[in-house]
Amino acid sequence: MSKGTVVLAYSGGLDTSCILVWLKEQGYDVIAFLVGSPDTPFSSWQVFIEDLRAEFVEHFIWPAVQANAVYEDRYLLGTSLARPCISRSLVDVARREKAHFISHGATGKGNDQVRFELTSYALYPEVKIIAPWRIPEFYNRFKGRLDLMEYAEKHGIPVPVTPKAPWSMDANLMHISYESGILEDPKSHAPVDLYLMTKNPEEAPNAPDVLEITFRKGVPVKVTNLKDATSKDAALDIFLYLNEIGGRHGVGRIDIVENRFIGMKSRGIYETPGGTILLQAHLDIETFTMDKEVRRIKQGLSVKFSELVYNGFWYSPECDFVRHCIQKSQENVEGTVQLSVFKGQVYLLGRESPKSLYNEELVSMDKQGDYDPCDASGFIRINAVRLREYHRLQGLSSPKN
Amino acid sequence: MSKGTVVLAYSGGLDTSCILVWLKEQGYDVIAFLVGSPDTPFSSWQVFIEDLRAEFVEHFIWPAVQANAVYEDRYLLGTSLARPCISRSLVDVARREKAHFISHGATGKGNDQVRFELTSYALYPEVKIIAPWRIPEFYNRFKGRLDLMEYAEKHGIPVPVTPKAPWSMDANLMHISYESGILEDPKSHAPVDLYLMTKNPEEAPNAPDVLEITFRKGVPVKVTNLKDATSKDAALDIFLYLNEIGGRHGVGRIDIVENRFIGMKSRGIYETPGGTILLQAHLDIETFTMDKEVRRIKQGLSVKFSELVYNGFWYSPECDFVRHCIQKSQENVEGTVQLSVFKGQVYLLGRESPKSLYNEELVSMDKQGDYDPCDASGFIRINAVRLREYHRLQGLSSPKN
Amino acid sequence: MSKGTVVLAYSGGLDTSCILVWLKEQGYDVIAFLVGSPDTPFSSWQVFIEDLRAEFVEHFIWPAVQANAVYEDRYLLGTSLARPCISRSLVDVARREKAHFISHGATGKGNDQVRFELTSYALYPEVKIIAPWRIPEFYNRFKGRLDLMEYAEKHGIPVPVTPKAPWSMDANLMHISYESGILEDPKSHAPVDLYLMTKNPEEAPNAPDVLEITFRKGVPVKVTNLKDATSKDAALDIFLYLNEIGGRHGVGRIDIVENRFIGMKSRGIYETPGGTILLQAHLDIETFTMDKEVRRIKQGLSVKFSELVYNGFWYSPECDFVRHCIQKSQENVEGTVQLSVFKGQVYLLGRESPKSLYNEELVSMDKQGDYDPCDASGFIRINAVRLREYHRLQGLSSPKN
Amino acid sequence: MSKGTVVLAYSGGLDTSCILVWLKEQGYDVIAFLVGSPDTPFSSWQVFIEDLRAEFVEHFIWPAVQANAVYEDRYLLGTSLARPCISRSLVDVARREKAHFISHGATGKGNDQVRFELTSYALYPEVKIIAPWRIPEFYNRFKGRLDLMEYAEKHGIPVPVTPKAPWSMDANLMHISYESGILEDPKSHAPVDLYLMTKNPEEAPNAPDVLEITFRKGVPVKVTNLKDATSKDAALDIFLYLNEIGGRHGVGRIDIVENRFIGMKSRGIYETPGGTILLQAHLDIETFTMDKEVRRIKQGLSVKFSELVYNGFWYSPECDFVRHCIQKSQENVEGTVQLSVFKGQVYLLGRESPKSLYNEELVSMDKQGDYDPCDASGFIRINAVRLREYHRLQGLSSPKN
């Protein structure tokens, strides 16, 4: 007699393969849910495979581009953005299949457990979560990789033949993250051969690629390589192409210590080639077309947005609200930037826009434009009223005057 | 009969040389105030020359490093930081010499006029400012460079023999900025030979330099080059050395459109080699040693600080206040980072600190540490209370459910 | 030969009457623009009289209610909200009449000049402003009230017969403000007979009125007095009725020192009866129906909104943006509050809403609801992870441990 | 054999009395920790009784006064401030007595459990918490008040003879809060006889009391009643006296729905007589003496402070940091305000200060002071630069122009 149906976020790796079998052992019916195109044969289980790539780019990465989303000044949120995308799809399957349980292989110390589960509770409040790495019977049984491999062999689960790298890794369309293992020592340098998505800048081409990226409403709608006239205009194609160019030139590598939602600091290494190019390009076209004070308010909302996404609150009333506001701010963020990509770096070269608030005549040193320099005297003097009053107070209250 | 004494912020260039003579023509006694070591002979004028370099580094750049000060996500404030440093010294001279007037050669459309004058009013409320580029008799007489050169020749002012670059430039210890002229077209690329402080990354060395920078209370106290064991530990020496290394590897070039305080957008090109290295290094050691929530609050204060500095409010009660708060946040920002500098980019490699809040055992995937993974279930479920309630509301209020 | 046409914001008082004649003297054609219904005969001038009351309530006061707009924690922005409403209408007349000039009687030290003119420049960028109180020929000629009265008599302008109160006053539908004159001494108490819109609480009725106010999308759509069943449901009627009830009970008097945009502190006394009731009522229904975290973000936007309105930036891209965001936040702010009004105070008594996020079962001490108290243990322990780490750091770094 | 020693936050009421006995039953040695002066005899237990009143006022209420601390625009944090004060003392006892456990009677749905425990973990990281209302064996055994009373009788615990009010109540020096029971229905009005600390405004005296309160560094150092010359200048005496006067006039009653940290909305009724007077008085003297822009930054920090205190993070690095910054801002907050207290309301009448930034001559309508009104023209025009540019953009991009 089944305890009910579980939809498991299945990665195809050793951990979730063992969890799958273990859940069956515990008496559940299990549906494996897999993102991407699998290479493993799934003879005996029910498997849902979803290609979420276009959705991921358009509904998750694009809003992050609009926001200039960066967590703690450095991390571009590649994993954080993927989690609600996967979880939403997982919940869809669970609802459709009338499954009352959702399970995942995320650990008990990380952010991903929070992201998976908050999305699940937000979209499917009655759901029950099974997180084996937080269940003593599970984690006490599988204390290390050897225990998992032994279990896998016993249950006919295909065991990876290549030795595991001495760190863990999470890859998606937007980035690869590396952490744990030998990387846990924050002063140890990352091995040179760690990176899979970007070339070592030292071995990158000796000549830049120059790209032209066109934005409309704050999202890229076209990218053209000026060297070879390659051009892309579908969202997914644009992003894949930027990954390719960024990867070739070693763009987007960072090695940071960050603050997890659950209150610990962790060391992570990330490579986000396309996302890094887009961040620079969007920052530029946004400043070119957006009013200064709107930008300032939006900047504050973006910091909030980044925190919410990092902490797993994509599907929350406040993240809905902030996304709406940020999107509103992007109405006039339109135009084209030119940039070069070279040896790990992105250089903005120029920009133009039909919606620009830049006024060449107004700002010119050689033309007066519709501007009277005398006005500046009054502007400065009024701004100084308060400063002069404060000086007076300091004079009064200080014995030395 | 003199109209009084003017202290002029004198750069040695054509503009301020002409202003100097013009002020005398108008009946003022003029004291030239010059920062740095001059090459020009100053036979007939009273000149004060100040070497403010150590003060600039310790009292202006270091607080900016503590703040991770960046204006509009990109500009490191090289000019903005120099202005209050110069103006404070200018005011000292004016007070000492009992001059009632201060003059400068800043234009009427820029930020520098504001920065010079707000500092002057804040520190010397009774002072009168003479800003020739905002006085019709002056700017109508000197409509272009030719007028200035003619005037200079007539008055025996040494005229620069090299042709002027088709842009204007402002250099100080921290950076060089380029703007105006051909750069006013925001889509035109900067000429390759524009940069003076940094090498073209394409021509930079093919091997990185690896630096170790040690911080105490959020400011660098030592830098060592691991390649050749070069080491510096005085503030000015550290900064000069980082400029040298950053410059050699082409670090810190940006091409941006920014929002001036007076409400126009302008295009600026900057190179800030040492400052860029320090920003990355400080961000890293700060995140490593500072509590997450303190960092969040401090991040908001830093955005404010950067705006204040950009807008010329260094000497204001609010900037005093914010600097104090930021400084307080830096008490435990101590430790050493290793980074490599290569082809325009700075890569963090590792960090260590006696004050770190990073706990390797706590975060380890292989050890449990003082952490019960079961706690995370409750944490997530309580965080979900609100999200589930919101879902209920949406269900109730939406006809489709 | 006319210098052109001026539209003058005309109040019917001595100042603007004199300005009107003076502008004619200077050679302008003058159109007087008057808000409200005039009692003075306007034989010889061209006059536009506009009843802007409904527009003021619906397009200016209602957004302020949605925002809980309060400047510096106390001032409800009665004058600040009226200015853009009047100016927008003034600009309409100027455009329609092809007038190139706008004039007003606001002083050179106040906020109103800024509010009038920023609105005018924003909506009619080519307009020229004539602000007589900032023109030396005008203000040197009219140094005091006597000069104005003499001028008025000479030019047949009706001179007020009642002696002027020893303070100045500005009244509109939302509030009356009092300042200047004897009120400039910040420690002097306001005279008891100063207030015109609200009764002295000491003389207010000894029994409260109890009101029921219904909101939809964050604005009141109905008010009912439970004592006598009086009920209003048109925007203007609702606001007038709340003014009546609030006024009767002495609600909404404040005596404050505030910070003007131009950097001086000024002392102002305000009475805002209806606005004060609505602020309390809206705060209540908003907290009842809005998610906590949305509220937090919106609270920050409201502070910004209040500053923008106070400083005269109603018609600005950032105020448009903030208004849009705040409005978005109000979609579910719906329901009914009951409150009593008594002796200067508003007491919330109860509230109900079909969109409430309050869940009586969930919060009940007597029922468990869908809540497991054990979850709280994990929630607290995870929140403590960071605090315990910090304690460890303090222990390590302090010599006393 | 004892399981170890527990320090129990003991209130003397039925709940904690039963918890005390139950803990002994479970095999613990129990130390009761009681704040205030007890009336009950404690024959058989070890009891610590602490008078924390002066500490509460000086180290918890005063910082809240400096901050103008208000949660969600209305709640003055009476309970939130008391909790860390009590818990810190509780931890002291636990450390001194080498107790490894702390216990309390707070429920599993409220904020107090979080506040008690976060303080305990922050100051005593190794402590174990016993929260019986979150332990199934406890809460399943004591399902209602009757179970507790039966248990009490069986164990010789004195049972309250007066029937319990149909709500729960928490009283301390600063306020009384009422919630639960019949108050859980958010539309039901609070009973007239609920309030214990403040008189019903309808029955309050018909003449105001007029107080003069003097502040130094943002905290009250003296209060004088101008009616009878009563005067207090010790912290605790000042606060008690303000409670007396505020209570007499029915000041500080609110009825709100608030957002608990754990994500539910709850209805609470509070009376905070002295705190409400101090909030108004401090707001006034602060605005009078603090620079406008410092105030703005401090206002943001205060919102943060209030959230932190409400959520139980008094003892956290970020609350330390914010308290330090707020305290810094108070250096010049000095002076005297006069106010009247009448029928539930506080009216500011006047203020004076040796550190005021208010400049009567500067702001006067009758004197020019050191102010040139012409400056305002330039100030406004420069502020309009951006608005006019935006208008241009809108004109270009909109087909209707």
Automatic annotation (TrEMBL), chains A, B, C, D:
Where does the record place it? Answer: Cytoplasm, Cytosol
Q: Please give the chief subcellular localization of this protein.
A: cytoplasm
Q: Which CDD domains match?
A: ASS
* Record domain Arginosuccinate synthase C-terminal: where: 167-390
The Arginosuccinate synthase-like N-terminal domain is annotated at 6-158
> Its domain of life?
Eukaryota
Q: Name one GO cellular component term.
A: cytosol
Q: What is its EC number?
A: 6.3.4.5
Q: Which GO terms describe its biological process?
A: argininosuccinate metabolic process; L-arginine biosynthetic process; urea cycle
The top EC class, named as a word, is: ligase
Q: What is the lineage of its organism?
A: Eukaryota, Metazoa, Chordata, Craniata, Vertebrata
> What UniProt keywords are attached to this protein's entry?
Amino-acid biosynthesis, Arginine biosynthesis, ATP-binding, Cytoplasm, Ligase, Nucleotide-binding, Phosphoprotein, Urea cycle
Any one GO molecular function term: ATP binding
**UniProt cross-references to Gene3D superfamilies, sorted A to Z:** Argininosuccinate synthetase, chain A, domain 2, HUPs, Single helix bin
Q: Identify the stretch annotated as signal peptide in this record.
A: none
Q: Looking at the Swiss-Prot or TrEMBL record, what is one Pfam family this protein matches?
A: Arginosuc_syn_C
- Name the coiled-coil region(s): none
Reaction catalysed by this enzyme: L-citrulline + L-aspartate + ATP = 2-(N(omega)-L-arginino)succinate + AMP + diphosphate + H(+)
What is the protein name for this chain?
Argininosuccinate synthase
- HAMAP family annotated for this entry? Arg_succ_synth_type1 (MF_00005)
Instruction: Identify the pathway.
Output: Nitrogen metabolism; urea cycle; (N(omega)-L-arginino)succinate from L-aspartate and L-citrulline: step 1/1; Amino-acid biosynthesis; L-arginine biosynthesis; L-arginine from L-ornithine and carbamoyl phosphate: step 2/3
